[in-house]
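dumping this here before i forget
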Amino acid sequence: IGGDADANGCIASAGYTWCEPLNKCIRSWESACVDLEEEETTKDEKEEDEEEEEEERVLKLHIIVLTVSCLVGVSLAFEITHEHLLEHTSETMRPIIVGLFGELTLLGFIGLTLFILFKMSWPHELSEYLYGDGEVIPELGESVHMVLFLVMVIFLAQAVYLARLGDRVLNKWKDWEGLSVDRVSERTIRKHKVLQSASLLSLANTSDEQVDSLIFSLTRDRFCVVRDLHPADFEFASYLGIALGRTLEELVEVPVKSWVCLEIVLLLAWQVDGLLGKRDKMVGWILAGYALPLMAGLVLAKLRRILVQHTAPLLADAEQRGQRGSLKAMTNRSIRRRHAQEERSFKKKGAKSPPRSPKRPPEPREKVLVHDTYHHAFWSGPHQKSKFTLDVLRFVPLGAAIYIAILLLVHAPALLKGEVLATYSIYVRLIVLVVALLPPVLCTIYVREAVDDFAIAGHVESLQNLRFVEHVIRRQRTVAAFEALKVVTFLRKPDIVRAAMQLSDQAGKDEREERSWRSIFDVFDENQDGIFDRSELRVLLTKFSTATEGKITEIIELLDDDKSGEISFDEFYAFGRKLERYVRENVDPHELLKEMFEIVDDDRGGLITVHELHQTIREIGQELSIDDVRFSRVS
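structure:
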């Protein structure tokens, strides 16, 4: 051993080999042939790589958390906005919000589908094959995605705006409820007659609130005659409010027909695109935009012509009879009220009351029938009734949203940068842009008015909705029952009744207010004879009050102003007006709700069941079914 040393003196038989980095002989199992400085450098580089990887991992985690937080924030904002709109939108206008968010969900799904498709490999491969650049088609996909997002935002803004205006229109109709046809001025009647012979195009630009109120009154009276109702007993504005809400709901829903039409327009634009330059494309797009308000204007003119032609014979018939208010129906309730007034006038004169039977039949009158061919006045009316006219109108808001999105994302930047109309000054290009933005404004005006007219024209005569009528009647009965419950809450307290009766009645009479108190009075009037005597009121107060007989008698005497032993509607109405003033000035609404709650909560369990509410309302005197009570809770 030792005789086999190599040139460096390393004895191979002993396991030594020469290590150049260390410049000495080493055994491989004892130490590695690595330079210590190089090994230290490699170790440092490895640690740096690990630190960079950790920093990158933390950064990615931060980005993920921020992204998810943003998505959660957007989702919360979406839901909060949804709830805020539902809370601050009237019941009749809520369907449009529900329908709108349904369509937004659909558009969101389409956007998500596009996002997933363009994240796959095939768009890049196809783009590389067709254009030699793998990013052309994905970038186009991002542009389409942006257009869809902008369309969603614009569509949302339009729907919210229409819902807000719908509330205003409903309030306007409620104000017109108190109007009578016999109070219309001759000037308004002449305007109505001028519209009867006006051209279709001129009707779209003719808007007169006085004429609209006349049309509303004539249509209301005719509707009540057909349904055997009295205008003072039926809230026609509420009926139209439901119809308006449903119309707006259908307006924001995009049906299959609209999608097919959009696809046809897209294919036509695709074929024309290669034949036109940038300027011609922009001009063509602006002209297409002006076609939308033209379409909406034609629908508005058609609806106004239908309403004018429908009310023309009604107005002529009223004039022929010599009294424009003669169209109103005469029902059992109005006859009963007249009999009650006659009896009170006899009593005031000290005469014996005229004989009156509660079962006295109404005066015979000819049955008024619905115009079965009324819907023929609409486009394609014999086959689709009013549906086709509404479909034409539904296309306008969606078309306007798409028009604005394309204009703002494609044509407006090219116009402002000078890529189009480059030879003209910036002021000329700005004027062109303003002209291009006018169609959506005109669409909003025409669509708003057309929707209002459609709510009336599309829900009378042969198109009347019996389910809406039942809804209004049930709601009126329910509201009257709860208002009666509120009155009962105060009738239990003689001191409040006395304090209210001492107030002066300063405000002028309002027909809508009188109709409301008439409904409450009818709830208390068990035998529906137009008056309720002391025994009826005593029974009612005994059910809901622990007051002594003396206090109950005191309350009755306070209400019975003429000491006739019976309480007429005039006496009850006078008390009601004074009570409203007293409540407004002296009563905390929360305390009132608490007292009403205690009246209904019969078992004092802290919760009100449907059966408890139903039983309380029945004891008041209003015959509502369980479904009516349950319906009142939901609404």
